[in-house]
Amino acid sequence: DEQQAERIVSQAFGLFSVERVCLDVLQKGLAVIGEGWYTGHITVQQEHFASALAVRRLEALMAATPPPTRPGRILIGCPPEEEHTFAPLLLSLLLRRRGWDMLFLGANIPAQDFVLTTQTARPHLVILTAQQLSTAASLREIGDLIYQVRVPMAFGGMIFTQIPDLSQRITGHYLGINLEGALQRIEELLSSNRLPPVATPVGARYEEALYHFRLQQAPLEAELWRSLGGSGMSHSLLRKANINFGRDIIAALALGNIDYLGVDLHWLRGLLTNHYQIPDKTVARYLAAYLDAATLHLEDRADVLLHWLQRILQMETTTEGIRSHQAHY
User: Fold this and answer.
1) Residue 212's CB: how many other CB atoms inside 10 A?
2) Mean pLDDT, to the nearest integer, of 220-224?
3) How far apart are CA 310 and CA 264, in angstroms?
């Protein structure tokens, strides 16, 4: 109901400040909707509808904001493959309302293009946001490149709240878990103009695993098609699962910690079921087939991945045993 949604948002802006409505209605509302999508209670189209409405409001507010009054330009955007623009757009709006000169570049900016824009626009601070594990890996790449041109970079996003240790893997200043704190942190960084600490390096074991996984990803996934072809899992779901799971494996290896894929079986099951649309009863079979294919094509050259899959499957076996025992009694 678009008219009713617009009416409610307009009423909120009539009663409260722009900052309060953006933070307490739009941002928190989208967070609740996003959680509902993860658990399967809210559809993709409902999530897209709400996001589009919120972004339209932010863009209108941005266009109505007076020109900057404070010195220093801030460049803000999303790393490659990151399409979620609400958080960086909201941050841009809040900073512009504080008088800062904002240059918002939007979603999915290629790494080299971002560096070129940084060199051309000569900002005092670059800000990037990532909401997913795969785009956090892209953010790490851009952070290293921007560091080489001696411009301070800051970053944030939902994935860093979900995996706190992940912030240590990025060459940049972490902005924290909420936008209000991020605003204060950004203004502190603009006054100091100091470069961030360099990210924790990725070990040789992970570099080798990443190289061999990329090299063998195509034959590995071909093996999955062969072994799961008669499992009842549709071709479209298997294709989506392979794309997303492979992308996240590459990200975890590139970031130097395979446990970023998830150490909790319940969380992983939710990810595979709701995000990748794998039926719950098929999750264990898919992971077992993935382990068999990875063992065949990677051997021991990506042992961190093989050990992780073995551990997750052991957790699955233990959980199924408990369920069976409870059902028996």
Assistant:
1) 18
2) 94
3) 13
Alpha-helical (H) ranges within 125-255 are: 133-148, 158-162, 179-192, 204-228, 235-255
Report the pLDDT averaged over residues 18-38.
89
Pair 87, 157: CB distance under 8 Å: yes
> What is the rounded CA–CA span in Å between residue 172 and residue 126?
9
- The pTM (predicted TM-score) of the whole model is 0.87
Q: Which of 154, 139, 147, 173 is nearest to 255 (CA)?
A: 139
Paired strand residues for 125: 74
For the cut 90, the answer to whether the pLDDT of residue 283 exceeds it is: no
Beta bridge pairs of residue 102: 74
Distances, alpha carbon 219 to alpha carbons 212, 224, 240, 298, in Å? 12, 9, 17, 10
For the stretch 255-279, pLDDT in tens is 999 999 874 456 666 666 766 666 6
Amino acid found at 301 = R
**Which tokens hold the place of 148?**
């080489």
* Backbone angles phi and psi of 278, in degrees to 5: -80, 130
Residue 287, token pair as written in the block: 């992971």
Q: Which structure tokens are listed for 143?
A: 């952070």
Q: Over the stretch 159-182, which tens digit does the pLDDT of each residue have?
A: 999 898 999 999 999 999 888 899
| CA 169 to each of CA 76, 137, 173, 197, 307: distance values in angstroms, whole numbers, following the listed order | 20, 9, 11, 10, 22
Q: CA 141, CA 136: separation in Å to the nearest integer?
A: 9
Structure tokens at 29: 């509302």
C-alpha distances (whole Å) from 151 to each of 12, 41, 95, 144 are 39, 43, 19, 11
The answer to which of 84-93, 268-277, 306-315 has the lowest mean pLDDT is 268-277
